[in-house]
Amino acid sequence: VDAFAAYDHGVLDGSADVHEPGAASHVAFAASPSEGVRFTADADVPSLRELRRIPGAPLRGSARVRVSGTVRHGEMDARVSSTFAGVAAGEALTVRRGEAEGRVHGPLTALALDATARGQGMHAGTYDFDDFTARASGPVAHPHVEASLTGKKSGAVTASGLLDAANASVT
Predict the structure, then answer these.
(1) I need a labelling partner for 115 at 20 to 30 A (CA). Which of 69, 82, 102, 155 fits?
(2) What mean pLDDT is predicted for residues 6-29?
């Protein structure tokens, strides 16, 4: 990590370049009592397989992620955007390319999210889809999720439910 910080007139400004193997990142922030904390972070992951934080995971592909937001008076408002390509989790799930964007907001003890992912060229099990869209909204611990997938080979599929992160289930 290469980091720099400076304190001037009540504001702490800083930045860091994180040389994480497989996921080079740049982070910048500014913090003051009146404005809270403003932050941005950019990460470039040219190979998901090379990420050392998740060793042995059968992942392939690449991604870029940008997060920006604020934390003030115990609340966060952050936006995230990403692009991804050639993503695969083993042989059962592959995605040719896509993008995601979203917002995480609210009290730090009860964050909510609104997020959408779109992409092309999804293979899931025995199904092949040309296009897909997935949305999640609501409390981070149990958002409502919905997905729409279409393809010449596998037709159209829509699904929705409530995600229970604690039990890794959807109802």
Answers:
(1) 155
(2) 92
Kindly report, residue by residue over 88-131, the tens digit of the pLDDT.
988 889 999 999 999 999 999 999 999 999 999 999 989 999 99
State pLDDT tens for residues 36-62.
999 999 999 998 888 777 767 788 999
Query: What are 151's two structure tokens?
Result: 């393809």
The residue type of 30 is: A
8 A C-beta contact, residue 60 and residue 54: no
Residue 16, pLDDT score = 95
Q: What is the per-residue pLDDT across 129-170, written as a single tens digit (0 to 9) for each?
A: 999 999 999 999 999 999 999 999 999 999 999 998 888 888
| CA angle 87–92–97, rounded 5-degree value | 25
Q: What is the DSSP letter of 58?
A: -
Rounded Cα distance between 119 and 115, Å, is 14
The angle at the Cα of 89, spanning 167 to 45, to the nearest 5 degrees, equals 105
N-to-C CA span, the chain: 42
Distance (Å) of CA 80 to CA 28, 43, 68, 148: 15, 11, 7, 21
Q: Do the Cβ atoms of 84 and 76 come closer than 8 Å?
A: no
Two tokens at 113?
């999210």
